[in-house]
């Protein structure tokens, strides 16, 4: 079976959750004798080998603008894939929904992983939000199979667009601490800090978590890992808080993945504020690395944490965050107990090998039809 994959920046270029997902998936597909072609953004690769780790690569140019880069690349990739020998085309990102018309025209079987509720994210206002909702609806019309990564997202697509979908979650890789000294770079002591990891964007609710932490009585630090590749008032104003509260530690972007893992391993509690996605990769990292987790109370976070079996929840306000931190700050035995069972949350549903088998089954089914 030959599978063409479009909609990411490429392989093995790892930038975000989508690229990580593709990396984990395609390397396993190749080991199971599936021929894989990944379409890559030509401008991101100074070297352009035709194959890496058994994965075939096609480099497609695009228009270098933030708004059009991915859409132009995906449309050109879809045309190329439709003329190729691929048995099935697999797209990621609901923004690529309309391009299913192209593959339908050429009779190519297709599947699309539509991801989260992009049209609700604060960063997509006006025309951007309208496009994402329209594109998501188009995906349900033109692709043979819709894939969501959470049961709750499947329900939303049924309610909004009247189209059922396959649920195949994102995965996590179990990991244990091997280099605890890596946290020394930030002057940290194991179990003496709370942790936030992600991007400085409003829909991750960092402002609420940071202000809630600042109102709490804890003497532990709050370590904030991540950044955005541009200047904006939201991130700048949050960073200024470190000038008036020495418990706050902003690390910026940490590219050493071993160091990130150790920050998770050694944190007292990981705080998760993501709101609009389905199965969030950072949440699964926290489980995989054995973190005690407190999370924003959403249907998606409850699904991953199995309604509180693997974490506790706060509401979307500073007082709720403050109250939970005050409650949990002196409950070290409780927190250690949460850490002890955290990795058990990576069930078969979130196991990359099981996930790969599910994708193969989907690809085989749509090839038969």
From TrEMBL:
<dbReference type="Pfam" id="PF00534">
    <property type="entry name" value="Glycos_transf_1"/>
</dbReference>
<dbReference type="InterPro" id="IPR050194">
    <property type="entry name" value="Glycosyltransferase_grp1"/>
</dbReference>
<feature type="domain" description="DUF1972">
    <location>
        <begin position="3"/>
        <end position="172"/>
    </location>
</feature>
<dbReference type="InterPro" id="IPR015393">
    <property type="entry name" value="DUF1972"/>
</dbReference>
<keyword id="KW-0808">Transferase</keyword>
<dbReference type="InterPro" id="IPR001296">
    <property type="entry name" value="Glyco_trans_1"/>
</dbReference>
<dbReference type="GO" id="GO:0016757">
    <property type="term" value="F:glycosyltransferase activity"/>
</dbReference>
<dbReference type="Pfam" id="PF09314">
    <property type="entry name" value="DUF1972"/>
</dbReference>
<feature type="domain" description="Glycosyl transferase family 1">
    <location>
        <begin position="192"/>
        <end position="319"/>
    </location>
</feature>
<protein>
    <submittedName>
        <fullName>Glycosyl transferase</fullName>
    </submittedName>
</protein>
């Amino acid at each position: 079976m030959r599978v063409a994959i479009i909609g990411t920046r490429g392989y093995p270029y790892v930038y975000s959750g989508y690229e990580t997902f593709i990396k984990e998936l395609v390397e396993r597909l190749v080991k199971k004798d599936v021929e894989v072609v990944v379409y890559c953004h030509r401008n991101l690769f100074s070297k352009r080998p035709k194959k890496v780790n058994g994965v075939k690569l096609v480099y497609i140019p695009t228009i270098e603008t933030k708004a059009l880069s991915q859409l132009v690349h995906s449309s050109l990739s879809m045309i190329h894939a439709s003329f190729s020998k691929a048995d099935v085309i697999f797209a990621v990102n609901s923004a690529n929904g309309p391009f299913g018309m192209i593959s339908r025209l050429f009779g190519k079987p297709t599947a699309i992983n539509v991801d989260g509720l992009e049209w609700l994210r604060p960063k997509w206002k006006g025309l951007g939000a309208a496009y994402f909702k329209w594109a998501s609806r188009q995906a349900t019309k033109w692709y043979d199979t819709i894939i969501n990564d959470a049961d709750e997202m499947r329900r939303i697509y049924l309610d909004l667009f009247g189209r059922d979908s396959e649920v195949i979650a994102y995965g996590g890789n179990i990991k244990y601490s091997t280099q605890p000294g890596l946290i020394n770079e930030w002057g940290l002591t194991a179990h003496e800090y709370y942790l936030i990891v992600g991007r400085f964007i409003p829909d991750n609710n960092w402002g609420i978590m940071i202000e809630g932490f600042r109102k709490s009585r804890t003497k532990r630090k709050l370590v904030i890992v991540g950044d955005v590749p541009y200047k904006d008032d939201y991130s700048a104003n949050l960073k200024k808080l470190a000038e008036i509260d020495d418990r706050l530690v902003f690390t910026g972007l940490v590219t050493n993945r071993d160091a990130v893992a150790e920050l998770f391993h050694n944190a007292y509690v990981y705080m998760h504020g993501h709101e609009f996605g389905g199965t969030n990769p950072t949440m699964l990292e926290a489980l995989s690395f054995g973190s005690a987790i407190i999370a924003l109370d959403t249907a998606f976070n409850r699904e991953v944490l199995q309604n509180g079996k693997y974490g506790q929840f706060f509401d979307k306000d500073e007082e709720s965050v403050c109250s939970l931190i005050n409650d949990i700050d002196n409950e070290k035995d409780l927190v250690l107990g949460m850490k002890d069972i955290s990795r058990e949350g990576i069930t078969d549903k979130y196991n990359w090998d099981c996930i790969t088998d599910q994708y193969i089954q989907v690809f085989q089914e749509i090839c038969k039809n």
